[in-house]
Amino acid sequence: MSKTVTDDGFVVFDRVQKSYDGETLVVKDLNLSIGKGEFLTMLGPSGSGKTTCLMMLAGFETATHGDILLDGKPINNISPHKRGIGMVFQNYALFPHMTIAENLAFPLEVRKMSKSDREAKVARALDMVQMGSFGGRRPAQLSGGQQQRVALSRALVFEPDLVLMDEPLGALDKQLREHMQFEIKHIADNLGITVVYVTHDQTEALTMSDRVAVFEDGRIQQLAPPDQLYEEPQNSFVAQFIGENNTLQGVVKEINKGIALVQLDDGSLIDAKPVNVSKPGERTQVSIRPERVEFDMSRLNEGAHTLKAEVLEFIYMGDIFRTRLRVAGNDNFIVKTRNAPDQVRLQPGQTVEIGWQAEDCRALDA
Amino acid sequence: MSDVNDATTAKTAPTPDDGLKIADGPVLAADGTPLKKSLSRALRVQKLRALALVAPLLIFVLVTFIAPIADMLFRSVENEIVSETLPRTTDLLADWDAESGTPPGAPVFKALFKDIFEAQEAKLHTRLGSRLNYELTGVSSLFRKSGRKVEDMAEVYQDQFEKLDRFWKKGENWNTLMGSDAWNADMAGWDPKSDDKQPKFELRDGIDVFLPATSESFANYAKFTQVEDEDNLAKKDPWALVYSSLYDDLQRAEPVTFAGLKVAGAAELSEAASAVADFETVNFAEAFTKIDKDWQDVEVWRTIQAYSPRYTNGYFLNAIDMQKGADGPEMRPENQQIYLTLFWRTMVMSIVITVSCILLGYPVAWLLANLPARTANLLMILVLLPFWTSLLVRTSAWKVMLQHQGVVNETLVWLGIVATDDRLALINNQTGTIIAMTHILLPFMILPLYSVMATVPQTYLRAAKSLGATNWTAFWRVYFPQSVPGIGAGSILVFILSIGYYITPEIVGGTSGTFISNRIAYHISSSLNWGLGAALGAILLAAVLLLYYAYDKIVGIDNVKLGG
Amino acid sequence: MKLTKTLLATSALTVASGMAFADAHMANEMTIVSWGGAYSNSQQKAYNEPYAEKTGVKIINDESSADAVAKLRAMSEAGNVSWDVVDVTAADSFRLCDEGLAMEINFDEMLAKGDDGSSATDDFGGTLINDCFIPQIVFSTTFGYRTDMVGDTPPTSVCSIFDTEAYPGKRALEKRPIGNMEWALLCDGVEKEAIYDLLETPEGQQQALDKLATIKDDVIWWNAGADTPQLLADGEVVIGSTYNGRLFSVIEEQDQPVAMMWDGQMFDIDGWIIPAGLTDERKARALDYIMFATDTQRLADQAKYISYGPARASSAPLVGKHADLGIDMAQHMPTDPANATNVFNFNYEFWADYRDDIDAKFQAWLVQ
Predict the structure, then answer these.
(1) Highest mean pLDDT range out of A134-138, B259-263, B526-530?
(2) Does residue A224 contact residue A212 with C-beta atoms inside 8 Å?
(3) pLDDT value of position B441
(4) What is the pTM of this model?
(5) Chains A and B touch (3+ CB pairs under 8 A)
């Protein structure tokens, strides 16, 4: 799903720090390189520093320390309007006193483009988002989705190489949001522009991006393509933040042939892949995706450890079944199974045995 | 149910569904009444309740706002005092030609005598004098003097009648002669010390045929004594005017016999009738001229004539520096023209003040809207601070600041910017008014501006800059247009407040910085020329409404926001 | 007339609601209207406190005298007069009397005899100027100057105000024609006796304005009696006109470098009126107060607190020392022979007639 992009350092954050009050750092030692034509998403909970990074790139905030480079040139001291970066804002920021066409013509006008060129470009940009017939209207007369398209085309109409998007779909309802995700992605791919996209919605991040940078506490916790991020989270924050996850606490007993034996707090033993644990005796948090838990022990490797679990709840969700279990004192252990003809429907109160492939279970930092 | 009777043929009472099905005839409710009627009945309670809720405010606004304005508008044209005080004179004067250049004839003077006599009894003549003095200087004392002397004129007749027969000296004789028998009997039975009302005077039947003028004068005297003065008529002697009227009646061309009059006093009447021919008479025109030669002045009569109608445009003419001339409205002499200048000045200075408020208030409102909440709150308190001190204190503080030896000038001299004998004239002129009023009205500009700016997100500016606009372009093309409704609201507020201001211009405006309102205040509280004050106020009101209308046409009143 | 009355009655409702209590007028209350400040204080000490002590009447003070004419007219039109006794200037009493808003007074009957046995009419003498006005004090509009700004030749003549060479600097004059017009003509060489005859003519009025025009740029026009004392104290003006009592306070109480110039002072009278149309009970109480407050001793007492002369001849010998400062007050009275060498008597009849007309011209002249 993600295209391969060579990281040619089109946008570079070089040891960037940011503090607002001189006491705490909002962004801590950020290093990030974005390739030309890449769709990079900054993902993280609110307050993680992702929007600040975007604003520093746009020029609305200044870096307290470090350099930001665009196409090899440092842009720290270039004012925002000279950076030539397109931007889509959370609430679209369409100028309410101008018509749609005037909104789109605005960036061309300030670039002193002739009237005929302007009109042609505006028409093309509106057509691109299927809004060609709305040029004479005012923003207030459009629906949220329509405004969103206009905002997008306004950010693109002056043909910037880099476009920043700050939670652009946050105000839309779910269905429209999903639709727009694909549309933005297609347009970005077609035009070959570089996009830096900020969101707190992980589904959005996974669907659209070439790479995702997960932010937390002013740092990038993991920078990876979506599949890697989901399947191979590097630490327990990423594992928790991306997708649904079951976690169990324990201590590493031994590490043998790339497989760690973990003794859970209730004394039971499980197998896990050591990710950031290195030696026995370390506390760890193991994490396993709900869809990788097996009820059928025959599908496990020989000698694999299993656990007893009590069924607390069974939820029928159509394409899948969602079963909540009590496992090693964790009442919130979720297992997702496909709705297949042979799949058993478990009853609450039932006791079952569960297990998994050691490589699906990741032993992370506690 | 069965007694329901309606236009349908249905045997049973119609249901609402039935009602809907009936092709002709009104739609009916369940109980058979027309649906519209029951709906309006159901809504009436709600409407009444709603009305009851707004009623206190409605009444308050009506009483304190609408009624005074209506009263003011009415006063600016109302002029009943002239025809009410001088009814006979104004009647006769209608036929007098001011162009003739000669004062009116004897009948008018005689009417004037009667009018002024009655007016001075009611103490209304000086009030009329004050009213007409606004139009013609000197009328005030003319009426005051004349009021004092009319008694003397009438007494010429009174003395002669009394000399002729002691009968005429006594009030009770007059009452018997002029009052009806029934009334006289009532009076005899009335105890003045009791709480009973004094019997209301009634003219003797038929007496007005014999003595028409006397009857009228006596009835007026009786009514005035009983109603206005609340005195006992039995204890009073009639006005001297009554004697003069009696003389008139007896003096008529054909001799009247009083044989038909069956009343005590008929004999005395007959006696007097034959004596009056030899009476000394009063030439009223001469008598008035003797009081004051101004009564021969055509201008006086022309003024009375011009202001005879119950309604006048005189106040409005005056309010625009015009007057009622001999040939219709004309401009006043140049050395009395003042109101047009003041109207113009009020408008121009209010515009200057409004613009100053915009220039000073805009950056402050911008800061308020964009600073962090804590700092903005502090700044907001500073903006509102002036409201906590009285207007007089603030204005007087400006005096200390701006006067010749004031803080501003001292500072400038100390800094060496101005020489000590060349200090800036910052007060007692237009500059003073503009500075002080800009300061006082600034919050009225800042608050609406702020409330509008607070709703304009910073994102717009960022968006504009990200699209390539410089700071100035972003502000001017994107932010400013969105703050225009705030400017509109603030300007309307400040402008309307400032054209009505008078305390501040009065204190710091000197002669060149005063407004039309200062003249209005003068006429309301000092000269008591409320009609002129009302006319000036009405013009000001009209100017405001006109400007408001123009604003609506040009900018659109939807473009005015006080917030959100 | 009916419509006006109805409208006024409704709009007066609000006013009336505020005055509801005043109107109820408990048996032993009366509202006395005066000017406030030091003047009201002198009345409080000299009249109100002794009167309240003697009769037990509760006195409510209202400081509305400056707007008395307009307010009284409004109250009268609304049919709800809440004032019992009103302190007004003589000129205002003329308007009130003319408008029928003030009650006519039978002076000999309603006022106390002088303590020398003279009738009230004789005792008040020339201060009785119309049928409604009960005189109280004689005050004057006169001049004060900065002693430190006039060099070695302090001004001694009213015409100094027109002499900008000898006395450079701003001067303060009242923003109305009364007084200024007379001074202008006097200093333009017109005989004092001929001034009012001349002022009746447009030419005379223009002559006065022309004379005033010679100093128009140097004048600060005042509206309130407190303005000139303040301007003098701040050194904003070198000389200015105001009420003599205000100057007394600046010179003797505040010790400013200011001195009096009595030449050309304009005598004026301040006194009481009783609103027309009071109920018998209130009228009787108002008259009782007036009888007390304007007797010989009371008028002389007032001069202990303020430098205004008593309106009764019989009070003059009783004027003593200032209550706090201990200064002999007689020499600070405008009526003191040493001060009254060259005075104008406010010509009420003339100004009642010509005020509207000349004021219109004066204001137009100011605006030009």
Answers:
(1) A134-138
(2) yes
(3) 93
(4) 0.82
(5) yes
